[in-house]
Specification:
The chain has 502 residues and is mainly α. It has 20 helices and six strands.
Length: 502
C-alpha cells in the first residue's frame, strides 16, 4: 500500500532531465504551436462535425464547440503550469506520479494510451474516408471489400451491424507511412507537419470565406432541434432529450462527442523534453494553438450547417460533401485535399505523442525499458515503441468503426483532464515552494472549473463508453500488479538495503 501511493519526488524528475537517454531539444514556440494546430485541426472538424450535427446537436453544434472549448481552456491552463514545472516526456502521467502516487500514475498512463493510440485509429479512419472522397472525384475507387471497417455502430438501435466489407485498407496504409516517418526523427516529423498545417489552414479559410456566400439562414432553423442540454449520468439522461438508442442528445451531448476535436493541445506537454525553452515555449504553444483552433471550429461549423440542412450532412466527409451539394465540385477537390493533409498532420502528432508516454513509463520501470524505453542511437527517437504503436493503431483503424473509436477516445481524454486539474490543486498544496514559470490564473477556480466541466461532458457520453473505460482500466491494473509494481523504480528505492552505519 505504501508503494502504490508513493509519489515520485520533484527533484528526481528534474534530475532525469540531465541524463544521457534524452530526446533531442529542437522545438521552439512556432514549432510547438504548429504541432498543436497540426494535432487539433483535423478529424474533429473535417469528420466529426457531421456526426455531431446529425445525431446530437443540429446547427447548435456551434454552441457545442464553444462549450467544449471552454472546458479545454481550463485544462490547458493546468497543463501549461505542469509542463513549465516538469519539462520531461510523460504529460499527465508524469504529473500524476508527482502528486497522486504510483498507482494513479499508472492508471493515467494507461488511460493516455487509450487517448493517443485510439485517437490515432480514429484519425486514420477519417483519413481513409477523405482519401476515398478525393480519388472518387477522378472516378477511382477502392474495392468495396477493402474500403471500410467490417462493422459499424447504429446509434438508433445501439447495436453493431456488419457492413459487408473486410478491412479499411487506406487507414492501414497511411498508418504504416506515418510510422516510418516518426521512426526517422523529430525534425523530419515537424517539417512534414508544418507543411501540412499550411495546406489545411488554407483549406479551412477557403471553407469560411467561400462558404459564407452559400449560407441559407433557413438551414439554421430549428437551431437546436435536440435541445440545449444533453446531460446524462451513466447513460441515464438527467436533463435533455434521449435518442432512439438511449443516448442523450443536445448541445452538451454534442460537446461530449466533438470534444475529440480538441485533444491535440495536451499532446504538446508530451514534447516538453524536446522543446528548446520548455518553461516558456510549451505554455505559449498550448494556449495559442487552442485559442486559434477554437475560433476556426466555431466559424466552420456555422458555415457548414448554414450551407446544408443538418440532417443532410454527410457524416463521413461533411465539409467537402457540403460544397458538392451546393454545386461547387471544384471546391470539393481543394477541400478534400486540404482535409487529407490536415488529417495526416493530426495522425502524425498523435502517433508522435504515444511513444513518449511509453518512454516515460518505461523509465520508471512500469513497462519493459528494453522495448518501450529504447531510444534509437542515430535518430534519437523511441523507435521500438513507435513501431508497436503503429501496429496497434493500424489494427484498430482497419477493423473498428468511427463512432465507437471517437467516443472511447473522448472519455479517456476527459478523464486525463480531470486528473491534471486535480493534480494542480494538490501540487499547489504539497509543493507551494516549487518554481512555476507559468501559473494557472485565478487559482483555485480554474482547476476546479476544469474538473466540473470535464466531468459534465464525461457524464454526457453514452453508458457503453463507461463500460469500455472500466474494462480498459481493469486490464491495465492487472498489468500493473503483475509486472509494473514489482519493477518500478519506486519499488527498488523503497526496498534498497540500507547501508550499515559504522
Amino acid at each position: 500500500m505504501k508503494q502504490i501511493f508513493a509519489k515520485k519526488p520533484l527533484h528526481i524528475l528534474l534530475e532525469e532531465m540531465k541524463g544521457e537517454n534524452r530526446l533531442r531539444r529542437i522545438l521552439g514556440p512556432v514549432g510547438l504551436t504548429s504541432l498543436g494546430v497540426g494535432a487539433i485541426i483535423g478529424t474533429g472538424i473535417f469528420v466529426l462535425t457531421g456526426v455531431a450535427a446529425a445525431d446530437k446537436a443540429g446547427p447548435a453544434i456551434i454552441l457545442s464547440f464553444t462549450a467544449a472549448g471552454i472546458a479545454c481552456i481550463f485544462a490547458a491552463l493546468c497543463y501549461s503550469e505542469f509542463a513549465s514545472m516538469v519539462p520531461v516526456a510523460g504529460s499527465a502521467y508524469t504529473y500524476a506520479y508527482a502528486t497522486l502516487g504510483e498507482l494513479f500514475a499508472w492508471i493515467i498512463g494507461w488511460d493516455l494510451i487509450l487517448e493517443y493510440a485510439v485517437a490515432s485509429a480514429t484519425v486514420a479512419h477519417g483519413w481513409s474516408h477523405y482519401f476515398q472522397d478525393l480519388i472518387g472525384i477522378f472516378h477511382f475507387n477502392i474495392p468495396a471489400a477493402m474500403s471500410r471497417s467490417p462493422f459499424d455502430f447504429d446509434p438508433a438501435t445501439g447495436l453493431l451491424h456488419s457492413t459487408g466489407t473486410i478491412i479499411d485498407l487506406p487507414a492501414i496504409i497511411i498508418t504504416i507511412i506515418i510510422t516510418t516517418v516518426l521512426v526517422k526523427g523529430i525534425r523530419e516529423s515537424v517539417g512534414l507537419n508544418t507543411t501540412m498545417v499550411g495546406i489545411k489552414l488554407t483549406a479551412v479559410f477557403l471553407v469560411i470565406i467561400l462558404g459564407a456566400f452559400y449560407i441559407t439562414p433557413a438551414n439554421w432553423k430549428p437551431f437546436a432541434p435536440y435541445g440545449y442540454t444533453g446531460i446524462s449520468f451513466f447513460g441515464r439522461t438527467l436533463w435533455g432529450q434521449t435518442g432512439a438508442g438511449g443516448a442523450p442528445q443536445g448541445v452538451l451531448a454534442g460537446a461530449a462527442m466533438i470534444f475529440f476535436a480538441y485533444i491535440g493541445f495536451d499532446s504538446l506537454s508530451t514534447h516538453a523534453e524536446e522543446a528548446k525553452n520548455p518553461q516558456r515555449d510549451v505554455p505559449i504553444g498550448i494556449i495559442t494553438s487552442l485559442l486559434l483552433c477554437t475560433v476556426l471550429y466555431i466559424a466552420v461549423s456555422a458555415i457548414i450547417t448554414g450551407m446544408v440542412p443538418y440532417n443532410k450532412i454527410n457524416i463521413d466527409a461533411p465539409i467537402s460533401n457540403a460544397f458538392k451539394q451546393v454545386g461547387l465540385e471544384w471546391a470539393q477537390l481543394i477541400i478534400s485535399f486540404g482535409a487529407l493533409a490536415g488529417i495526416t498532420s493530426v495522425l502524425l502528432v498523435m502517433m508522435l505523442s504515444q511513444p513518449r508516454i511509453f518512454l516515460a513509463m518505461a523509465r520508471d520501470g512500469l513497462l519493459p525499458e528494453s522495448v518501450f524505453g529504447a531510444v534509437h542511437p542515430k535518430f534519437r527517437t523511441p523507435w521500438k515503441s513507435t513501431i508497436l504503436t503503429g501496429i496497434f493503431v493500424a489494427t484498430l483503424a482497419g477493423f473498428l468503426p468511427l463512432r465507437i473509436l471517437a467516443e472511447l477516445v473522448n472519455i479517456g481524454t476527459l478523464f486525463a483532464f480531470v486528473v491534471v486539474c486535480s493534480a494542480v490543486l494538490i501540487m499547489r498544496k504539497i509543493h507551494p515552494e516549487a518554481v512555476r514559470p507559468f501559473r494557472a490564473p485565478l487559482f483555485p477556480y480554474v482547476p476546479i472549473l476544469g474538473i466540473i466541466t470535464c466531468m459534465i461532458l464525461m457524464f454526457s457520453l453514452p453508458e457503453e463508453n463507461w463500460l469500455r473505460l472500466l474494462i480498459w482500466l481493469v486490464i491495465g491494473l492487472a498489468i500493473y500488479f503483475f509486472y509494473g509494481r514489482k519493477h518500478s523504480i519506486m519499488h527498488k528505492l523503497m526496498n534498497k538495503p540500507k547501508e550499515n552505519s559504522v
